[in-house]
Amino acid sequence: MPTTRPASAQPLPQQPAPSAGDPRPALDEAQREALSELVRLTPVVDRLGDLFVGAGHELYLVGGSVRDALLGRLGSGGVTDLDFTTSARPDDVEALLRRFSPAVWTIGKEFGTVGCQVVERETGTTWVVEVTTFRADAYEPGSRKPAVAFGDTVEGDLLRRDFTVNAMALELPSRRFVDPYGGLRHLARKILMTPAEPEVSFSDDPLRMMRAARFAAQLGMVPAPDVVLAMEAMADRIAIVSAERVRDELSKLLLADAPRPGLDLLVGTGLAAQVLPELPALQLERDEHHRHKDVYEHSLTVLDQAIELEARLPVRPDLVNRLAALLHDIGKPRTRQFEPGGKVSFHHHDVVGAKLVRKRLTALRYPTDVVKAVSELIALHLRFHGYGAGQAEGGGWTDAAVRRYVRDAGDQLERLHILTRADCTTRNRARAQRLSAAYDDLEERIAVLAEEEELSALRPDLDGNQIMELLGVGPGRVVGQAYAFLLERRIEEGPLGPDRAREELLAWWAQQPR
């Protein structure tokens, strides 16, 4: 059985004592108002509370909505996902929810969870409700799925939750605040602690170790020392968790406003070595002359700077942008070489990195479009340096080279702009200004050519049907070769026009072996 943490485990500030006869933990006026605002914004909770209590069951609002209300993080639009815990067993929960909503799902019923969707007619808000029977679940050694045992008390249910800040509840419809494990005090101190001993909590669900890193990023919370020690000791247990759950937790961490503290925690505890080993591998040993920059710290800085530039994107936060920024240099450990004269090189780390990231993100079950976009960005992230070098030498790219840059980037062009700019972390101000000016120039040239030539739809001057008609051939390899020839001419020369395109195509065709 899990044990609660001794009260003396961490020194905590004194809280005002509850008034006589008040069973609730001490809440100040602002916190009481926050919880009242939560209920006001989510009127379904009282109706659901009346329904369950009327049927002889207990019902509590739990989890992130309670925590976020106390943090003042409900947001202008309120919350739309609501989690409840109840004394009712799953069959009873399903029956009650079917009286409450026409849209009920039972996909998690074997684990005690039944969900439904409710639309508030007055506001048009759609609420996604999940109700879970009091439970005490744990992973068996070597198992990927929890063994579920239903419980009888809210205190027992909250003891099984991941962290004390998520183990606070609001009883319904009485609105009694329930906080048996000190979550309110820990929230005030931004300390991340587990209701049970951390070894027990992380054995119950090893993904909670990654969730600690996510809360460090999302909420600015600092794990208690014994939580960190348990993460270090149990990091290899994350292997029993499915790749999909690991992926989702990693994505939530990366999409936080400030992912760096969470990533540092993953690396420092050894969790990253289990789920994303390419990240700690960036901590390359440096010789006494420091002949290359700290690649890990550089990558985190690039991530920070890429996040700052996300205003350029239509939707943010942007997962592809952040994965590419964090992992753009993962090919460096494989390609590092010490050259004559003391220099260090990383030749072709862009190509190697693109292959590595494709393999890793595929193993983590990321969608194919995400894997493709991130790997393409990493493969292209050094391309601009040829432009900057050409400018420095008094030359520069031809229009054809600019067109090819746009063609190769495709629909990732804006993200490539961000990654390339974010990749400048030099402390040499003059060099940083030169690189920025060079990229400004490149973007301006792209904009001019795009306006003149419709670069976003870079195609040959003749389509496939016109090619077949002109050459007198049917569909097949020849048409593809002719199309590639005309596209290359389009990139080199700009728009040819139909007449010139026909002439050049016929001249090319005359030279082809029959």
Structural class: alpha+beta
Shape: elongated
Span between N and C termini?
Answer: 81 Å
Mind summarizing the main beta sheet? 7 strands, mixed
Organism: Microlunatus flavus
Keywords: ATP-binding, Magnesium, Metal-binding, Nucleotide-binding, Nucleotidyltransferase, RNA repair, RNA-binding, Transferase, tRNA processing
Region (Disordered): 1-26
Biased composition (Low complexity): 1-20
Keywords:
two-stranded antiparallel ribbon; magnesium; 3 domains; 51% helix; Beta Polymerase, domain 2; 514 residues; 24 helices
How does this structure look, described?
With 514 residues, this protein is an alpha+beta fold. It folds into 3 domains: 1-189, Beta Polymerase, domain 2 (2-Layer Sandwich), CATH 3.30.460; 294-457, Hypothetical protein af1432, CATH 1.10.3210; 464-510, no CATH class. Helices cover 51% and strands 9% of the residues. It has helices at residues 29-41, 44-54, 64-71, 90-100, 154-159, 183-189, 198-204, 207-218, 225-234, 243-254, 260-269, 271-275, 295-308, 319-327, 332-335, 349-363, 368-380, 384-392, 399-409, 413-422, 429-453, 464-471, 477-493, 498-510; strands spanning 59-62, 81-86, 103-105, 113-119, 126-133, 138-139, 146-147, 169-172, 177-178, 191-192, 222-223, 337-338, 344-345. It has a 7-stranded mixed β-sheet.
